[in-house]
Write a structure and sequence with these properties.
Layout: E1 12-13, H1 17-24, H2 29-55, E2 73-77, E3 87-91, H3 100-120, E4 132-136, E5 145-147, E6 152-154, H4 169-182, H5 191-213, E7 223-224, E8 239-240, E9 249-250, E10 254-255, H6 271-274, H7 280-293, H8 301-310, H9 320-335, H10 339-350
Parallel strand pairs: 2-4, 4-6
Antiparallel strand pairs: 1-5, 2-3, 5-6, 7-8, 9-10
Helix pairs in contact: 1-2, 3-4, 3-5, 4-5, 5-7, 7-10, 8-9, 9-10
Length: 356
């Protein structure tokens, strides 16, 4: 159940439109072709998402007995078509098969469920035991992964720029967190509220990866999508929370455009007002807070961010300053006037976002 005016799902992809736009203009048809097809897929799915928002989507039935302490996962294979959900290939509790993509999707859904349940007591995406569905092998060389408001979808990548989108578990966690946001703060997907929407997905996607690997804040790489870029690409990931703007610098992809502070905030009409670009600013604030606190980032910094996401006070059109102010309030309410509060306050100061 959403805390903010009803669930309004949006179509969210892990690879930003500006990246695919650039690839679509490449002279090499081996690069431009898959990118153009991916953009066409995305446009179709985005339109379908809007129609579903208007007419309503069929509600998914929770597992018998209500909210469960175990996930209810189903993996489908689209067989390189755009038909969703596809053919069921693995259900909850079944053994792993020979398809590594299916197995990674299954494991990633489980890792996301585990972090939310064990760290925050949340029962699946909607906190009511929502079944977790995912489709793999979507489209031909599809260069993206997305949450469509109802399920996860993964492309295989073109193997020139992007590899299989089930490889990074943080990509899976990122997209499913869009579902959590959909059912809680319901942040509008434009401008600063949209950048916060993207940032929250990066934050919890990274925490899911760290939780799975048992990493402290100091041990984590703070990269989103590490392992996704093909060997020919000069880069390490799609985004860096530790050092926004440094994830890639490639002759085909261009340079990572994310700013780390408000001094370099990007004003653009593209990408819904730069939601995938300016998310670097709140991303960096979270990294700074988590690094200052040390230990496991999901325990304190993650708890504060989760409190704000689910607390019911975050407006759908929130600005960075609104979110920052609520994190300061949440830190004070949960931990008092100690290190946690100071770390959060300083993190926003360092990225140039004022708190009230």
């Amino acid at each position: 159940m959403t805390t903010n005016g009803g669930s309004v799902p949006v179509f969210c992809t892990i690879v930003p439109p500006h990246v695919l736009d650039r690839l679509a203009r490449a002279e090499d048809p081996g690069l431009s072709g898959p990118a153009r097809r991916s953009l066409e897929h995305d446009a179709y799915q985005r339109t379908k998402r809007r129609l579903t928002t208007v007419i309503g989507a069929p509600a998914a039935a929770p597992p018998a007995g209500g909210a469960a302490d175990r996930p209810h996962r189903t993996i489908y294979d689209a067989g390189h078509t755009q038909d969703l959900p596809g053919t069921e290939v693995r259900e909850e509790g079944s053994e792993a098969g020979s398809d590594a993509t299916v197995n990674r999707a299954y494991a990633g859904l489980g890792a996301t469920f585990d972090l939310y349940l064990k760290a925050y007591g949340r029962h699946s995406i909607d906190d009511e035991g929502l079944p977790l569905d995912a489709t793999v092998h979507f489209g031909e060389g599809y260069d993206n992964a997305f949450w469509n408001g109802e399920q996860m979808v993964f492309g295989d990548g073109d193997n020139e720029i992007f590899l299989d989108f089930t490889i990074p578990v943080d990509v899976i966690g990122h997209e499913l967190t869009h579902g959590v946001t959909q059912h809680t703060a319901n942040l509008e997907y434009f401008g600063q509220s949209g950048a916060l929407n993207e940032s929250l997905s990066d934050v919890f996607g990274s925490l899911i990866k760290q939780y799975t690997l048992g990493q402290t804040a100091a041990e984590a790489d703070w990269l989103i999508g590490a392992g996704l870029l093909a060997p020919r690409v000069t880069g390490t990931a799609l985004r860096s929370m530790k050092a926004p703007g440094t994830a890639y610098d490639d002759d085909v992809l261009g340079k990572d455009p994310q700013p780390a502070t408000m001094d370099h905030y990007v004003r653009t009409g593209r990408d819904n007002g730069g939601v995938h670009i300016n998310s670097g600013i709140p991303n960096h604030a979270f990294y700074l807070a988590a690094a200052a606190l040390g230990g496991y980032a999901w325990e304190k910094a993650g708890q504060i961010w989760y409190d704000v996401l689910t607390g019911g006070e975050l407006k759908t059109d929130a600005l960075f300053a609104d979110f920052a102010t609520l994190t300061v309030k949440a830190a004070r309410e949960r931990y008092g006037a100690g290190d946690e509060l100071q770390a959060v306050q300083k993190s926003w100061e360092q990225v140039g976002v004022r708190t009230l």
